[in-house]
Automatic annotation (TrEMBL):
It catalyses: deamido-NAD(+) + L-glutamine + ATP + H2O = L-glutamate + AMP + diphosphate + NAD(+) + H(+). Deamido-NAD(+) binds at N384, E413, K523. The gene is nadE. It is an enzyme of class 6 (ligase). CDD domains: GAT_Gln-NAD-synth, NAD_synthase. It comes from Marinobacter nauticus (strain ATCC 700491 / DSM 11845 / VT8). Residues 17-257 form the CN hydrolase domain. One of its GO terms (biological process) is NAD+ biosynthetic process. The keyword RNA-binding does not apply. This is Glutamine-dependent NAD(+) synthetase. ATP binds at G301, L302, S303, G304, G305, I306, D307, S308, T408. GO terms for molecular function: ATP binding; glutaminase activity; NAD+ synthase (glutamine-hydrolyzing) activity; NAD+ synthase activity; nucleotidyltransferase activity. Keywords: ATP-binding, DNA-directed RNA polymerase, Ligase, NAD, Nucleotide-binding, Nucleotidyltransferase, Transcription, Transferase. L-glutamine binds at Y131, S187, K193.
Length: 554
């Protein structure tokens, strides 16, 4: 195995090198299945593209993030068996894969180069991240060496994900003679992520005069969605190839190698609009969560409102109409407009649609509670009972038919606790959990450009939970255009209340919103997971204590 920085003499003649970017979806923990996927992809890359090198995403052998599966005693045995299988295949292309490797008693996030049936080199990630959703220092030690290998006659450097974002690893590989850097990634999606990646790759390739192949994971894993977006940059900082986001596939890039390894430019995909990008992330997250966890179908409450309408559309686009069931559960406060719109949505999308009134159940509960409630006035207790009855119905359908319940709460509602524990929060996956309400409206309009499935008045009429006569969301909350701006500053950017007021918002609105966010941490801890689309969602990103005495003013 070569030592750090070891290469063969480079050839003077121009040589063509074909690198295939394997942008694929791996199942966390399924080491045998992932091994077979690596072999099958490499065989196809050779048969269809005559690949010299096939580059896979970070930790593709285990899937990402494997979390505490890395602590299992059998991990080393399973990884060793997988590597033996990959080596014994002795396939013509060089494979660059990601795997957890133990060395000297420590576990490393590693990239391995397998060629001609041998592990020719291994690289240990030097900067395991420990921020936002990343928790790699819980498991992995830090590498320290540089790896530059002669692969198919060219000096190629290897780095892993975060190593590209820090100064040192790429610079060291370039100084050791690398003309081409292969960077393995499991970089989760957020709204602005691809733009930040491009700015980084442009700068790093230009400053170090090396070409970079950036290969990223695609697919959903619990709350995370990986968007792919694999790319190749030339040594002057030019984008030569880019893979469409959210699409699996094998994507070849040809390099002409002499003094530099220069990628031959390929047509670039069109820049996706934000709404299309977010919508694809939601579809990917739902599809993989449902399928990877073995659910046959999903069921959701369809209220006639915009959140459930967008959730229904995402579910159908992710799974197909045959696997989606929508249930309208009206009460005396449900408007005729809501009934009409819910039916129109279900009909337009072709899903199974049921209507079950909760009125008889509500009356039975209130009769049972008549004695303890005697002498009290109706309040949110009676409103929440409606939501909880709907939750019971949906969970019963889930139990009977093996369907996953999709909840429909958006990020704005989850932030301020505008939801009912064991009611509309009852379920297994919240599609819109990280989507602010103002963006929900934009997603609805975007989805209607594909086919008209959400009635216009669902988008334009004032949102309401319809738990009381003439109820509107803005009766108890600031307008969503104001609310979402305050939430962005407080939840995603950690501004204090005083700092938010200094941005021009009314003190009364800010204090109310901040208080609601703080006191509803206990609710969010009990909420289902959902697709993460922002830099800071409610989940691993934001970990505040439920019980605390912190004052949020300053």
């Amino acid at each position: 195995m070569p030592e750090a920085g070891q290469t063969s003499q480079s050839q003077n003649a121009v040589r063509k090198l074909r690198v295939v970017m394997a942008q694929l979806d791996f199942l966390v923990g399924d080491i045998p299945g992932n091994t077979d996927l690596i072999l099958e992809a490499t065989q196809r890359a050779w048969a269809e593209h005559q690949a010299d090198i096939v580059v896979f995403p970070e930790l593709c052998l285990t899937g990402y993030p494997p979390e505490d599966l890395l602590l299992r005693p059998s991990l080393d045995l399973r990884v060793r068996e997988a590597l033996e299988k990959l080596q014994s295949a002795a396939l013509p292309p060089a494979m660059v894969i990601g795997a957890p490797i133990r060395s000297g008693g420590l576990l490393y996030n590693a990239a391995l180069v397998i060629e001609a049936g041998q592990i020719r080199g291994r690289y240990f990630k030097r900067f395991p991240p420990n921020y936002q959703v990343f928790d790699e220092k819980r498991y992995f030690a830090e590498g320290s060496d540089t790896l530059v290998l002669d692969i198919k006659g060219q000096p190629v450097g290897i780095t892993v994900c975060e190593d590209l974002w820090k100064d040192g690893p790429l610079e060291d590989a370039a100084a050791a003679g690398a003309r081409l850097i292969l960077n393995l990634n499991a970089s989760p999606y957020d709204i602005d992520k691809q733009a930040r990646r491009k700015a980084l790759l442009e700068r790093k390739s230009r400053e170090n005069r090396v070409s970079i192949v950036y290969v990223n994971l695609v697919g959903g894993q619990d709350e995370l969605v990986f968007d792919g977006g694999s790319m190749a940059y030339d040594h002057s900082g030019g984008l030569s190839a880019e893979v469409p986001q959210f699409e699996e596939g094998l994507y070849p890039v040809d390099f002409l190698c002499e003094h530099h390894c220069q990628p031959i430019s390929r047509p670039l995909p069109p820049e996706p609009q934000l709404e299309a990008n977010v919508y694809n992330a939601l579809v990917t997250g739902v599809r993989d969560y449902v399928n990877k966890n073995g659910f046959r179908s999903v069921v959701l409450g369809l209220s006639g409102g915009i959140d459930s309408a967008v959730t229904l559309a995402v579910a159908v686009d992710a799974l197909g109409k045959e696997r989606v069931r929508a249930v309208m559960m009206p009460f005396r406060y449900t408007s005729s407009i809501s009934l009409e719109d819910a039916e129109a949505e279900a009909t337009a999308l072709g899903v199974q649609y049921d209507v079950f009134s909760i009125e008889p159940m509500y009356d039975a509960f209130m009769a049972a509670l008549a004695e303890p409630f005697a002498g009290t006035k109706p309040d949110t207790t009676e409103e929440n009972l409606q939501a909880r009855l709907r939750g019971v119905l949906l969970m019963s359908l889930s139990n009977k038919f093996g369907s996953l319940v999709l909840t429909t709460g958006n990020k704005s509602e989850m932030a301020v606790g505008y939801s009912t524990l064991y009611g509309d929060m009852a379920g297994g996956f919240d599609v819109l959990k990280d989507v602010p309400k103002t963006l929900v409206f934009r997603l609805a309009r975007y989805r209607n450009t594909l086919s008209p499935v959400i009635p216009e008045r669902v988008i334009t009429r004032p949102p309401s939970a319809e738990l009381a006569p003439d109820q509107k969301d803005e009766d108890s909350l600031p307008g969503y255009d104001v609310l979402d701006q305050i939430l962005n500053l407080y939840v995603e950017r950690d501004y204090s209340a005083d700092a938010i007021v200094a941005e021009g918002f009314e003190r009364e609105d800010v204090d109310r919103v901040v208080r609601l966010v703080d006191i509803n941490e206990y609710k969010r801890r009990q909420a289902p997971i959902g697709v993460r689309i922002t830099e800071r969602g409610f989940g691993k990103d934001r970990r505040y204590p439920i019980t605390n005495g912190w004052k949020s003013g300053k």
